[in-house]
Every structure is written in structure tokens, then in C-alpha cells.
Sequence to fold (92 residues):
Amino acid sequence: MPLIPRSSYYTKDYRQSAALIRARQPYLVKNIFTGLGIASFVIGVYAFTISAVAQDDFSDVQVPDAVQQPPHTPHAGALRTPPEVSGRQQQS
Fold:
């Protein structure tokens, strides 16, 4: 048994005690309005973004008829084969 008794705003069933409900009561309305304000701001930014993107017109962009393959550039980049695999001899 602990020397100091457990002090908590929650009961043994992890429910709010009457003291916790009384302590939170003055802030309940203010917290609701703050939450509604933040939620309405987020929804407003989302709606504005969607409406701004929906107005975009891509009629000036030219779309090619067929897919063009990029030109072949040998020995470009890190996909180069090592000399012993390609059949070249190493010079000493």
C-alpha cells in the first residue's frame, strides 16, 4: 500500500469525477467556440484551395500525339556496367 494516497480526477473505472467536471466547466463554452473557429478556418482554406484549382484552364498546354522516347545516351549515370562484365580488359 502506498504511503501517499492516489489523487486523481478520474475514478477507478477511468471516468471523470465530479471534481474534474467542475474544474472543466468554466472552459467548456470557450473551448467549443475555439474548436469551431479552428475547424471553420481549416474547412475554409480547403474549400478555397479546391475552388482555386478547379478554375485552372489547361487549354493552352500542347499535348503530344505519341509518346516520344528520350534519346539513348550510353554511359550516362550510375548504371554503367563494370569493365569485367562488358568484356573489356583492365590495363595495368
Q: What stands out?
A: The chain has a mean pLDDT of 79. Helices lie at 18-24, 28-54, 83-86. The first helix runs from residue 18 to 24. Residues 9 and 18 are 8 Å apart (CA to CA).
